[in-house]
Amino acid sequence: MSPSLRVLFVEDSDIDAQLVLHQLAHAGYSVNPRRVETEEELRAALVGTDWDLILCDYQLPRFSAPEALRIVREHGLDVPFIVVSGSISADLAVDMMRRGAHDYLIKGDMARFVPAVERELRETATRRAHREAEAARSQAEEARRASEARYREVFQITSDLILCFEIGPGGEPRLRQWNTTAARLLGIEVGPDGDARMPASFSSELAVALKDCAARNTLRSRDLPLTPPGAADAHHFHTTFHPIAEHDGQVSRVFVVGRDVTERKRGEEALRRAHDDLERRVLERTAELTAANARLRELDRLKSEFLATMSHELRTPLNAIIGFTGLVKDEIPGPLNPEQKRQLAMAYSSSKHLLGLINDLLDVSRIEAGGFRLNREAFDFAGVVAEAVGQVRPLAEARRLTLCTEMPPGALPMFGDRRRCLQILINLAHNAVKFTEQGGVDIAVRAAAEEIRIDVTDTGVGIAPAQVSQLFEAFRQFDTSSRRNREGTGLGLYLCRKLLNLMGGDISVESTLGRGSRFSVRLPRNAPTDGPAATTRALPPTP
């Protein structure tokens, strides 16, 4: 690639400029030229362009080479300035060289032109390189002086003590430099022999560490005790030894940097005592909590046993009341008038409702006490769905609601607790009907090889988002603007989740307030073998 050359012609003859360009091109240069004829044009050309070469005719119609050279020097430019003229006397040529021109050439003597240009370009490049090197050296020297000044300042004002020891041929250290902090803390004094002296207690231990560091030529650290002048108690200094080795590997100097860590050690000791005290308190509180938890578990067990006992004791007479009320209601002892039938029906219904509540309480107490047992038997889940729908349908019809089911064809063999599956379905369907004013309830069943999924969807009042997370808690009931005279203890959904968990299934809910809810149940078709079981019967073959 041809070297690029930016050339400024101060020339009134375009032909002469073209002749010079031809010579430069022939010499292998790629020239970017500009020609000016007046002082104004020259001043404009010197701004914004770094010229490699200025070729100036000695005499122009309104301008001259001395004036052009003066302007170039005013701009502080170090650019080869060569006078090229048709004729020039020796005196004028010498005068131009004295003024600062780099060379002068006769236009008719082009043989000297290219060598002269190349010489001046080389010399200019050399001057520039020298200036740049000198500037870099000056900057480096200034940076070194500034760095040394900063080092001296930091050396003196740092709160750490800093000592510099010279290691003699026999390994004996001699203190040569120290900062203000070291002088204050150590009470350093310079003796008649010129050697610095430190407290003997600190000096003896320091000498051992210095010799070890110099012998091993390895960075060392240790804690050293020191009692500063006027202090009652010893201070602890974390001291680091930095060896400086010569080219032969022998340690000639060792820098010692010591930091007063007395407060840190006091803090660490206080923290250790606080930690021990806290650990003791935690152990005491843990023992208290353990005892309290044991007491709470015992109280919870007693509560569950009490509920179970009371539920059992209540169910026995209640079953008798229901049985005898049913006999009378069915007119087995004798005929009844309409008012008697109505009142007996109310008593029978209320007794059945009370029995359901007692059964729920009994189930909860058994589950919480860990004594709940599941039956494991073979049954057809399709029959469970049909039975649940049959029990809930009268309530749906009484409320003028639709009750639809979507089932896969054929039987749905399962192995688990049929009665609890029926309890879950009745509870969900009954809740859906109870909380729906218009529309209806859909029960969709989908069967897979390992599980059955049931979705109970209603168009009822829905559930607020803030209440969804609390929906499956025991005794949790939520009031809505449309809810009036709705019976329940808040145990139904809690029992559903607990029973499903025992059977290896789960339940979830999606709801929009004012638009309805969907409860989704997942049941394994084969109940877990490690769960509670009272009875086990063979699973019938899948049709």
Tell me the CATH superfamily of the largest domain: Histidine kinase-like ATPase, C-terminal domain
Total number of beta strands: 21
Helix content: 40-55%
Question: Helix tally?
Answer: 13
Q: Please state roughly what percent of the residues sit in beta strands, choosing from under 5%, 5-15%, 15-25%, 25-35%, 35-45% or over 45%.
A: 15-25%
Mean pLDDT: 83
Strand order of the largest sheet: 2-1-3-6-7
- Count of distinct structural domains: 4
Major sheet: size, sense and barrel closure? 5 strands, parallel
The protein's oligomeric status is: single chain
Classify the fold: give the CATH topology of the largest domain. Heat Shock Protein 90
Q: What CATH architecture of the largest domain do you see?
A: 2-Layer Sandwich
Helix-strand makeup class: alpha/beta
User: Distance N terminus to C terminus?
Assistant: 91 Å
What is the top-level CATH class of the largest domain? Alpha Beta
Low-confidence stretches: 481-485, 531-543
Catalytic activity: ATP + protein L-histidine = ADP + protein N-phospho-L-histidine
Domain Response regulatory: 6-122
Keywords: Kinase, Phosphoprotein, Transferase
GO molecular function, one term: histidine phosphotransfer kinase activity
